[in-house]
Amino acid sequence: MKVNIQHITDSLNKIILGKPEQIKLAVVCLLAKGHLLIEDLPGMGKTTLAHALAKVLGLDFQRIQFTSDLLPGDILGSAIYRRSDETFKFHEGPIFTQVILADEVNRATPKSQSALLEAMEEYQVTVDGVSRKLPEPFFVIATQNPFHQIGTYPLPESQLDRFLIRISLGYPAREVERMLFTGEDSRKLIEELEPVITPEQLIALQASIESIKVSDKLFDYLQDLVDATRQSSEWTHGISPRGGLALIRAAKAWAVLNQRDYVVPEDIQSVWLGVCEHRLLSQSSSVGSAINPVADILSNVAVPR
Question: Are residues 103 and 198 in the same domain?
Answer without folding.
Answer: yes
